Every structure is written in C-alpha cells, then in structure tokens.
C-alpha cells in the first residue's frame, strides 16, 4: 500500500510539473477542464474555474440553439402535415377526373404557396380541361424518354433540372424555373412543382411529404377513373 501511495504521489507531482511547463494544455483538451474539481479558496486557480463556467455556458447556448432549431422544424412539419391533410380532404370530395386535377393544382398553389404546378397525365381523358398546368400524354411513360430514369426509380426528386426537362414540364415558363420538386404518380403520370427560387427545392431534402402528396394524388386519380 505504501508503495502505491508513493507511486500516486510521484505521478501527481509529475502531472503538476508537466502542467506548469505547458499552461496551454487544457486549451487543447477542453473536455478535461470541464471534468476537473476546483477548490473553493481564492487564488490563481480561480481562473480555471472561470474557464469551466464559460465552457458550460457556451455548451448551454449551443444546446439552446439546437433546441430552437428542432422546435422550428417540428412547427414547420406540423404546418406541412395540416396542408397535406387539407389536400387529402379536397381530393376525397372530388368525384370526377376534372375536379380531381383542378383540386390538386388549386390546393398546391394556394396552401403550399407554389409558383408553378404541372400535371403530366398518361392517357387521353376527354373530360379533362385544356389548361397550361395540364399535359395529357397518350403514349404514356414511353413518350417521355427524358424522364425514363426518374420514372424507373419512382422516387421523388428535388433540385435543378436540365433546360430540356424544364422545357418539357413548364413550356414557355421554363426560363423562370430554377428549382423543382417532381413526383411520379404511380401509373397515372408526373407531378412537377417549380419555383423561381433556386434554393426552394434542393437535392437531399427530405422526401416524406413529397411521398405522401404523391400517394394521395395517385389514389385520387385512380378513384376518379374508376368512378368515370
């Protein structure tokens, strides 16, 4: 036991001597400073206590910032969920292909504050209106070779598109579109939402709500076809 105590005392002196020679040590290992136990008495050592306190304050400030971000994200997700619910209700009330298509564009434009909405629907439905926001594609997916990879994968995408794809989707308005969210509507077609803001839709954005919107509209279109 005596040998152990001597060893501990020797090691403590070695550590103390090392710290005296390297006063910058704790600045390089701040996590160590935060774990040290400081004496209560006043003296030069109190500066380290101040450092620990400031370190804790900085960590608390960072945690508060992260918490505020999470709260804002949760609030935005709640608003999006309410809009998706409103879209679902509107589509449940639709009883024809025309009303379904018009409801999609109206709700996305109003509730989601979208600038340009385009529906590209496979097939030829005579009851659908002639409108800038609607394209009927009698040849189906094969008639859109520029979107072959997107249609094959079936996953929503967001970001910037080539000039060729923008022209196919938005026609004369393509030059105004700098970012796009695009969803496959099952076997019914494609939904594209365009924005003049290049940062509105970015690669890597979460696709949960885009998938929900896609599934809702796909089901509504299928239902309208069955009814008619």
TrEMBL record:
Question: What are the alphabetically sorted keywords of the record?
Answer: Coiled coil
Keyword Protease attributed: no
Entry keyword RNA-binding: no
Question: Which Gene3D superfamilies does the annotation name?
Answer: 3.30.450.40
Q: Name the source's superkingdom.
A: Bacteria
What InterPro entries is this protein classified in?
DUF484, GAF-like_dom_sf
Task: Supply the Pfam families for this chain.
Answer: DUF484
**Coiled-coil residue spans:** 53-83
- Supply the name of the protein: DUF484 family protein
Species of origin reads Rhodanobacter ginsengisoli
